[in-house]
Structure formats: structure tokens, C-alpha cells
Design a protein that fits this description.
The protein contains eleven helices and eight strands. It is α/β, with parallel strands linked by helices. Helix 3 runs antiparallel to helix 11 and helix 5 crosses helix 7. Helix 7 links the parallel strand 2 and strand 3. The N and C termini lie far apart (63 Å).
Length: 271
């Protein structure tokens, strides 16, 4: 018992010493492989919310995302399509969809290295927040399942328990992430000079530069260059990143499209 009490006292003292500190993690290609929003779209396809051609378009954008990193035009295109398709869907349905997406598509794509970094912050008493363009419902599921502090995500407008197909504010992306984090810092009494931020994309440089400890994970070429010029730490958890060939990735997207087609065929086939 004395040893347990001593450990508890030490943990409390450590947490107290880290007051005002927190860590903020991007999700897509930072915490997980690929883009969570595309997996939401895939799950909506499985529920027959849209056509095979739209599904193939989502699969192609996911392939490009994995291959070359985040592209703002593709993110906005998927966002706009998802908003249109979400109109009239209930909040409860989206929450249930988020749980399914995590269990079936996201959990297995979490980078163990990034997860370990988040857990290290938690162990020493720092809050850990996700900051992502992903819908807040999905971001909250990821945060909850990983035992993190909370999530900041894109918020859809709701009326009478259903989504209208419009956003509250804008997609949480690029400079908008920095604004959202500054608001959390103000509310939680954080000192951003003593906070950490993690991302893979040059679009998140505004977020990375506002904290005292920017860290780059699985970076795109622009962010890798920026990190090198500014002596930021870089982690790359993509196994065989340089050795992976375009043919292998092409096979991956080909399989994804084929899988979508097979799923579509099952929906079409009379039973």
C-alpha cells in the first residue's frame, strides 16, 4: 500500500508540474494511415447513400492521399459530397456510423508510433487533443476509443436532430486548426509555448508554428523541407516508405475499387 500511495503522489506531482501543457495531434496520415473522411464516405457507400462512380472517385482520392499526402482540393471535394449526402441523416445515425468506421476501418490503420507518443503525453499528465478536418462525431469516437482528452473537428449544422448539409463555420483545416487550438488554449489556460503539435501536412504549418514544440510525422515533401530548415523533429512511421513502389500502391487502389464494385454488385443482385 505505501508503494501504491507513493506512486499516486508522484503521478499527481508530475501532472501538477505539467499544468498549462497539452499535445495536439492531427489525424489523417499523422495518427492513422490515409484519410478518415474517405472511410466515412466508404461506409456511407456501403449503406447505399451514393453511386459506384462516386465511390470510385472517393477511392481514387484516398489513393492519391496515401501516395502524395494531403491535397486541399480533394479534401474539399469529399467534404462537399459528404455534406450533400449527409443532409437529412439523423445525428444518432452519424454517431453509429462513426463507431462502425472506427471498428472496421480506422482502428487497424492507427500508426503504433503515433499512438505511443500520445500515450506518453497522457502518462505524464498532459491533455491530448485531436485536431482534424474529420467530422467531429468521428473525431470524438477516435479520441474516446484511444482514451484521449478530446477532439476538435468539423461541425455540421443540425436542425431537429438531423444534418442540414451545411457547416457550422468552415472545415477545420489549415489556419482554422490554429484558431481552434488557440481558443482551447484560452479556455483551458494553456501556455502554447509549452505545448506540442503533431502533423504530416504543410497545410498545418500555422498550427505547428504556434506551439513551442512542433513535431512532424510522416511528412509530405513541403513539410519535410520546412522541418529541416527549422530543425523540427521528424518521425516517419511508414514502413518501407522509400522502398514502396507505385505498382504496389496502384494494386492497393485497384483492390479498393474492385472491393467497392463487389459490394455494389451484392446490393444490385436480387435475393
Amino acid at each position: 500500500m505505501p508503494e501504491e500511495n507513493n506512486a499516486a503522489i508522484a503521478a499527481a506531482a508530475l501532472a501538477q508540474s505539467n499544468t498549462g501543457e497539452a499535445a495536439f495531434f492531427d489525424v489523417d496520415n499523422t495518427l492513422m494511415k490515409g484519410a478518415s473522411l474517405f472511410h466515412v464516405a466508404r461506409k456511407m457507400y456501403e449503406r447505399r447513400a451514393f453511386s459506384l462512380s462516386q465511390a470510385a472517385g472517393f477511392a481514387w482520392k484516398q489513393f492519391k492521399f496515401v501516395l502524395r499526402g494531403e491535397n486541399l482540393d480533394d479534401v474539399h471535394a469529399v467534404r462537399d459530397s459528404a455534406l450533400t449526402l449527409a443532409a437529412g441523416i439523423t445525428v444518432d445515425d452519424i454517431k453509429a456510423l462513426g463507431e462502425e468506421v472506427y471498428d472496421e476501418m480506422i482502428e487497424s490503420r492507427i500508426w503504433p508510433g503515433t499512438k505511443a507518443l500520445a500515450e506518453q503525453h497522457l502518462r505524464i499528465g498532459r491533455p491530448v487533443w485531436l485536431v482534424t478536418a474529420t467530422p467531429i462525431e468521428v473525431a470524438t469516437v477516435i479520441s474516446t476509443r484511444l482514451g484521449l482528452t478530446g477532439a476538435l473537428g468539423t461541425v455540421g449544422e443540425i436542425e431537429d436532430g438531423m444534418y442540414t448539409g451545411r457547416l457550422v463555420g468552415d472545415i477545420l483545416h489549415g489556419p482554422a486548426k490554429a484558431v481552434a487550438v488557440s481558443l482551447v488554449a484560452e479556455r483551458e489556460g494553456l501556455d502554447l509555448e509549452h505545448c506540442w503539435a503533431y502533423s504530416d501536412s504543410a497545410n498545418d504549418i500555422p498550427l505547428l508554428t504556434m506551439v513551442g514544440h512542433p513535431v512532424v510525422i510522416n511528412p509530405d515533401s513541403r513539410l519535410r523541407k520546412h522541418a529541416r530548415e527549422n530543425n523540427w523533429p521528424v518521425y516517419d512511421f511508414r514502413s518501407g516508405r522509400r522502398a514502396a513502389t507505385l505498382g504496389l500502391k496502384a494494386a492497393t487502389v485497384g483492390g479498393a475499387v474492385y472491393g467497392l464494385w463487389r459490394g455494389f454488385s451484392r446490393f444490385r443482385t436480387p435475393r
